[in-house]
Design goal:
Length: about 550
């Protein structure tokens, strides 16, 4: 079958099942097991506590749909593209680059790029990172005022979101200096972060793949100034993470504290290497290794598991079904895990910068909507905010729940029980809803009668039939976080291949950067070009008036 025939059949399938109640699918007693996948497999899991269960049975996907979706993945060439990525082919065609972030988490593996073994360089950097992290943690590397108490990572996008998300996620494993993150060029971010820090015991890490990003370089200069006011040799308390080693030297950072990586590591895929240094310092090199091992285990699974039992592939196919077949424009990621509070923001970059494209690899317009818009917040907080729309609004928002079976606070086990009860309740409520009869009974009990009873009852109806998936895992350990992040990376990759787009470039961020460069002088009073649009001119006027007042 050709790709377009499969898409057509999926559309027809959507038409056939759209009115079907998901709950009725559970008449098949085997549905939950059949529409779930376990990673890495029951026997190994029992030993390592690393098992994940991805349950997509509370969606309207049935056996016929799943078969079509798998045929879609095969026809789109997911397996061949995956193998090309792992083999170091230049699959990022618009930038002429290979995509080898997976090599970072498999340091003992073998990868050649254009016949050149990339592993010795990568291993050497990893060893240097470990050595430096141990020194910072153990007091071998000190600031002017003694042992390092705080680490500030300055970076943005992929040079911030990954380590910031992971540092929060793995808080129970922190036994190194405290970690802080400055990303926004808004001076408030630097000011608020630095206010309680001691420059004499702070290590600053400037994280930027290109070392040209204006936000990062502006913050780096500001923080260097802050440090220079108290520290005689501020450069000695700076480290850099970058692929632009000439620029880190120009900034004055000594080569022994520069950790480089190659252009085959995309920014949003870079936390596995030097960009993860702040995380390594916080949790220690051994636990960082566990994080890498989790990612590597997911890679091995992605490469070898049959598509029908392949966790990233199935996560991707559920995404394609909801966004590209059923046209649900957004997807909510809802971690019932406070420490995954930054996961939605991390996934926004991973998914939307990767797959927010309109042109296929071959330069044609895409045939289907790309995306979707990814958003979310931890539960249970979201329940008291935006879940109203998810339950009773007019648009369907497929929900992706994540939760650990066990927390890190045994003394607060009753909190975790409540957390679990809530996540289970939400997916059930979304699927089953509440019909008019049950709603009438509730309104009647509240004392309403006659027309008022009918009116009140309608407000208490939940349409139900709203799809959700649940990813459940034993505990959020470093290894588990590695598995989760790699899972989402491969999901994004698989969706990108199915859509025929390049998930590894990001030309869409360029125009705004260019315009910011040309507008900044106007804010400093520079002459305005005649062609300046009226709205921008008006906004500039407003700023000028406030300045004068
Ligand atoms: O502008 C987008 C982007 O290039 C992201 O892709 C990247 O993660 C971020 O900026 C930061 O870039 P750099 O690490 O080069 O400072």
């Amino acid at each position: 079958m050709t790709l377009s025939t499969i898409w057509d059949r999926l559309d027809a399938q959507a038409g056939r099942v759209s009115a079907r109640a998901i709950a009725t699918l559970f008449h098949d007693r085997n549905r939950a097991a059949a529409f779930s996948v376990r990673f890495p497999g029951p026997s190994a899991a029992a030993v390592h506590g690393e098992e994940m269960l991805f349950d997509f049975s509370k969606t309207n996907i049935d056996e016929d749909t799943l078969e079509l979706l798998i045929e879609l993945a095969i026809a789109a060439g997911v397996q061949a593209r995956r193998d090309a990525m792992f083999a170091g082919r230049r699959i990022n065609e618009t930038e002429g680059r290979a995509v080898l972030h997976t090599a970072l988490r498999n340091p003992e593996g073998k990868v050649a790029l254009d016949g050149q073994d990339v592993m010795p360089g990568l291993r050497e950097t990893l060893l240097r990172m470990r050595g430096f992290a141990r020194e910072v943690r153990g007091g071998g590397f000190v600031g002017q005022g003694g042992a390092i108490t705080d680490v500030v990572n300055i970076g943005i996008g992929g040079s911030d979101l990954g380590p910031a998300m992971a540092c929060l996620a793995l808080a129970p494993y922190h036994d190194g200096p405290r970690c802080h993150f400055i990303s926004n060029v808004d001076g408030a971010h630097a000011a608020d972060t630095l206010k309680d820090l001691d420059p004499e015991t702070t290590l600053v890490i400037v994280a930027s793949k290109t070392f040209t990003t204006i936000e990062t370089m502006t913050n780096a200069e500001t923080v260097r100034g802050w440090m220079a006011a108290r520290v005689s040799d501020p450069g000695a308390q700076f480290a850099a993470l970058s692929s632009a080693l000439d620029r880190t030297a120009d900034f004055g950072i000594a080569p022994e504290r520069v950790f480089g990586f190659e252009d085959w590591v995309g920014g949003r895929y870079s936390m596995w290497g030097p960009i993860g240094l702040s995380l390594m310092i916080a949790i220690g090199p051994e636990r960082f290794d566990d994080f890498l091992a989790g990612g590597a285990a997911m890679d091995a699974h992605f490469r070898s598991a049959p598509l029908r039992a392949n966790l990233p592939v199935l996560l991707a196919l559920v995404g394609i079904w909801h966004a590209q077949v059923l046209s649900h424009a957004t997807r909510a990621v809802l971690p019932y895990d406070q420490r995954l509070a930054r996961l939605p923001a991390y996934l926004q970059q991973l998914e939307m910068e990767s797959n927010g494209k309109s042109v296929t690899m071959s330069g044609q317009d895409v045939a289907r909507p790309t995306g979707p818009v990814v958003w979310g917040e931890p539960g249970t907080n979201g329940q008291h905010a935006f879940y109203q729309l998810i339950h009773q609004g007019t648009q369907v928002v497929p929900c992706e729940f994540l939760v650990a079976a066990k927390g890190h606070e045994p003394e607060l086990a009753h909190h975790h029980r409540l957390l679990l009860a809530n996540v289970l309740a939400q997916s059930k409520a979304l699927m089953e809803g509440r019909g008019i009869e049950a709603a009438r009974a509730i309104a009647e009990k509240a004392g309403f009668v006659g027309d008022e009873l009918d009116r009140q009852a309608r407000h208490r109806v939940f349409p139900g039939n709203r799809p959700s998936t649940t990813l459940i895992y034993p505990r959020l350990t470093p290894r588990m976080l590695g598995q989760i992040v790699a899972l989402y990376e491969h999901r994004v990759f698989t969706e990108g291949v199915i859509l025929g787009i390049n998930s590894f470039d990001q030309w869409g961020v360029e125009l705004g950067k260019e315009l910011a460069r040309s507008l900044e002088p106007l804010l400093a009073g520079g002459a305005r070009p005649e062609a300046l649009d009226g709205s921008t001119a008006q906004l500039l006027d407003f700023v000028a008036a406030v300045r004068l007042s």
